[in-house]
Q: What sequence folds into this?
């Protein structure tokens, strides 16, 4: 959906203090829209301290430079209830949720979207690297290395139809160049790598503070103890980082988590996926579709920037079954499975089970 072809609209842009949302706001203003920058405060007193005030100041500085109004909305309670509580609850169950998916669904395109419309906005906008058709159909961003459609599969189609994604039409390097052209103070600011809206907070470090974890044994597939980990609940099948293998050296092969025992607080690792970890059928719940389908051949992705797999999607109400053409390892219940028809996102769901 081109920002130049929609006529002048009143747009509330979620400005996070990063370069992508800054350029999104600048492009919208340049196109003649009535733009307001909104910083969404989600830091909660129950969370670890983060630099949200600096992010807010960066966002405010950009809006002042662009000469657009700046507002702050406090959604910290919504974020804690819908994202943090969900995250912790799912990990306690031994599942691996995706907080960015829930943040987009409940915060950015949930509470923020609803508030913006109540304030008189006709559209909202964000700095996501995606594209959307006027009817709300979601597509990958031009820069596939930055594409974020995986995180937006659960946003209702009618809300996407009322959202601009200006940077989705550009390569990241071009977004940086645009930031320089607009004279934005965020032009050279590094990308955030942490939890959605929290900043550079490592997920495992965050979970260690909010879950009852303790060190445990790393086992090989024969049950022999070969290392240590920080807490079995923190790991996902297929993961290869965050635990220590004894007597490892430069020639030691990578080890992958192939099993967890939450009660015994152990994880089992192998230098190759275990055969019983290979899945050919995946059950999904909480389905959201961007087109009306009952059965469809598609490509499915089971983690952000994961390798696509050819699947047959079979829909039954709010549940779905994916039949894989070839077995895939490391499927984690709680994560998102998102399916595509070339560059168009068909829909997605939460992985419930894999076999």
A:
């Amino acid at each position: 959906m081109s920002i130049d072809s929609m006529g002048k609209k009143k747009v509330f842009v979620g400005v996070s203090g990063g370069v992508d949302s800054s350029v999104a706001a600048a492009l919208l203003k340049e196109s003649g829209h009535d733009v307001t920058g909104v910083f969404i405060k989600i830091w909660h007193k129950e969370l670890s301290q983060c630099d949200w005030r600096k992010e807010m100041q960066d966002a405010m500085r950009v809006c002042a430079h662009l000469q657009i109004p700046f507002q702050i909305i406090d959604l910290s309670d919504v974020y804690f209830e819908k994202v943090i509580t969900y995250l912790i609850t799912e990990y306690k169950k031994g599942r691996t949720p995706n907080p960015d998916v829930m943040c987009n669904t409940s915060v950015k395109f949930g509470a923020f979207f609803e508030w913006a419309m109540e304030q008189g906005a006709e559209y909202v906008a964000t700095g996501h690297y995606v594209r959307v058709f006027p009817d709300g159909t979601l597509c990958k961003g031009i820069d596939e290395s930055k594409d974020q459609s995986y995180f937006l599969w659960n946003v209702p189609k009618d809300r996407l139809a009322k959202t601009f994604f200006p940077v989705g039409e550009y390569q990241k390097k071009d977004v940086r160049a645009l930031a320089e052209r607009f004279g934005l103070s965020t032009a050279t600011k590094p990308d955030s790598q942490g939890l959605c809206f929290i900043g550079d907070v490592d997920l495992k470090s965050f979970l260690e503070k909010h879950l009852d974890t303790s060190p445990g044994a790393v086992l090989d597939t024969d049950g022999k103890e070969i290392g240590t980990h920080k807490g079995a609940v923190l790991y996902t099948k297929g993961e290869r980082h965050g635990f220590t293998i004894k007597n490892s050296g430069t020639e030691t092969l990578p080890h992958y988590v192939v099993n967890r025992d939450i009660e015994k607080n152990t994880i089992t690792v192998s230098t190759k996926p275990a055969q019983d970890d290979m899945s050919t059928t995946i059950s999904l719940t909480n389905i959201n579709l961007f087109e009306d389908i009952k059965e469809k051949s598609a490509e499915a992705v089971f983690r952000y920037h994961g390798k696509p797999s050819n699947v047959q999607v079979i829909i039954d109400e709010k549940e779905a079954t994916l039949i894989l053409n070839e077995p895939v390892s490391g499927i984690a219940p709680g994560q998102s499975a998102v399916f595509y028809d070339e560059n168009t996102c068909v829909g997605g769901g939460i992985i419930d089970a894999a076999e």
About this structure: The longest helix spans residues 99-118. The mean pLDDT is 91. The two ends are 39 Å apart (CA to CA).
